[in-house]
Design brief:
Blueprint lengths: L5 E7 L13 E9 L6 E6 L11 H4 E6 L14 E6 L5 E8 L1 E2 L6 E7 L13 E7 L4 E8 L9 E6 L3 E6 L6 E2 L10 E2 L11 E4 L12 E6 L15 E8 L11 E13 L2 E9 L10 E6 L11 E3 L2 E9 L8 E9 L19 E4 L7 E3 L2 E5 L7 E5 L21
């Protein structure tokens, strides 16, 4: 069970020690996980009161499991479910687990499962407990997803995810009738990348502040990298991969011909005391959103790919890439820690404060994994056994106050 664990506080019914459902809902701490490449399944556990854990209470802790035996379209998933409230109809709002159908399912399909979190607690999954949004009935499965609220009502209403064929799919549920956001005699992807450019990580999404929302809804920028590092043969891949920033303005069927290219150039930065760093710069023309639909930057180093999710923080797009070592006698490889402006060029200010100059990224002599941002520091675990975590200071968010704690709150009412 090596899938990441996601913890969420939700207002839901639970289970008693005998396995029966409670009569009333309450706030509960629930963790969601799964088998990743070990099993085609996910689970939910009630961990509200760890002090009461016992063998006698096992039925109370285990809320449900969802596996390929419940739906043949469910495969190996590499992302824990994303949890939130969503409409299942015009006035039917439920706590929901969103999960891509994953890879290598018994029945070919590409789509998103919506699971009613209370639905499986009775030991079975009925048709009303599951909503499946299918994009491709003959697809190879859907990669990790990003879910968001675009209307400010605290309900998930839009989901983005890619697939192994380089398609970027969008699901919309604004009115509670979930379906592909774009259709043309069937579901249509928002964007399709170049040949041999799989999307295997969840995209990042931000508002496009350089274009008017009116007439361009939902007016969102969707960022992702391409590349695959899932199977043994992936190590040897030298296909050129890319980083993309796609403008979702309500128009689908996009490809690279409608994007502005960026060029990555390398240089050496003197850090003093006989220490230097290999760095990158991203160059290109200013974006004209009246004529284009985003940007792309090709990763021109052989074998380089992006297999983790980007992070948007203020004016920066952070993304790590890896370059696996193709020699089977060597472990690991190298990679880059990158930071673009949201227009795909070198940012206008420093994204990495340890460097005196503005750069787009710096090279690591190990393969960086998914980063975590805590405060004004970005922590990146890597394949380096001697220095397993790269730590870099990054700019504070605009308007941040040093030492400030909570500055606002929301009352949640069921």
């Amino acid at each position: 069970m090596d899938l990441e664990i996601r913890q969420q506080d939700i207002y839901t019914k639970g289970k008693r020690a005998n396995g029966n459902l409670t009569n009333k809902a309450a706030w509960r701490s629930v963790i969601f996980g799964g088998g990743r490449a070990g099993a085609k399944g996910i689970f939910a556990l009630d961990v509200t009161d760890p002090g009461s854990f016992s063998e006698a209470d096992a039925e109370k802790i285990v809320l449900w499991e969802f596996a390929e035996s419940d739906d043949n379209r469910f495969g190996y998933v590499i992302q824990a479910p994303v949890i939130g409230m969503a409409k299942w109809g015009e006035s039917d709002i439920r706590w929901t687990a969103f999960v891509s159908n994953g890879y290598n399912s018994n029945e070919a399909s590409t789509g998103i499962f919506m699971l009613d979190i209370e639905g499986g607690m009775d030991g079975s999954w009925d048709s009303d407990d599951i909503n499946y949004i299918e994009f491709d009935a003959e697809g190879d499965g859907l990669s990790p997803l990003t879910a968001l609220d675009t209307t400010g009502d605290y309900l998930i209403d839009r989901v983005y995810a890619g697939d192994l064929d380089g398609n970027l799919w969008v699901a919309d549920g604004t009115n509670g009738s979930w379906e592909s956001a774009y259709t043309a005699s069937g579901p249509q992807p928002l964007f399709t990348a170049a040949s041999n450019q799989p999307i295997t990580a969840a995209p990042a999404v931000a508002a496009n502040n350089d274009a008017a929302r009116a007439g361009n809804e939902p007016n969102l920028l969707v960022f992702f990298g391409t590349g695959q590092y899932l199977e043994r043969n992936d190590v040897d891949s030298t296909a050129t991969q890319s980083v993309y920033g796609i403008w979702d303005k309500g128009l689908a069927g996009l490809n690279r011909s409608t994007l502005e290219p960026r060029t990555l150039d390398e240089g050496t930065l003197d850090l003093g005391e006989n220490v230097s760093a290999q760095v990158r710069y991203s160059n290109g023309d200013k974006l004209d959103y009246s004529a284009i639909n985003g940007w792309y930057a090709d990763l021109d180093i052989s074998g380089e790919r992006a297999v983790v999710s980007p992070q948007v923080r203020g004016e920066f797009l952070y993304l790590n890439t890896i370059i696996p070592d193709q020699n089977p006698c060597l472990g690991g490889g190298s990679g880059w820690v990158l930071a673009f402006g949201l227009d795909g060029r070198t940012p206008e200010s420093r994204a990495f404060l340890e460097f005196d100059q503005i750069v787009t990224g710096y090279k690591l002599n190990s393969m960086p994994n998914q980063s975590t941002i805590l405060g004004n520091f970005r922590f990146t675990p890597s394949s380096d056994g001697d220095e397993p975590v790269d730590v870099v200071e990054i700019p504070p968010l605009s308007g941040a106050v040093a030492g400030a704690g909570r500055r606002g709150w929301n009352e949640l009412i069921e």
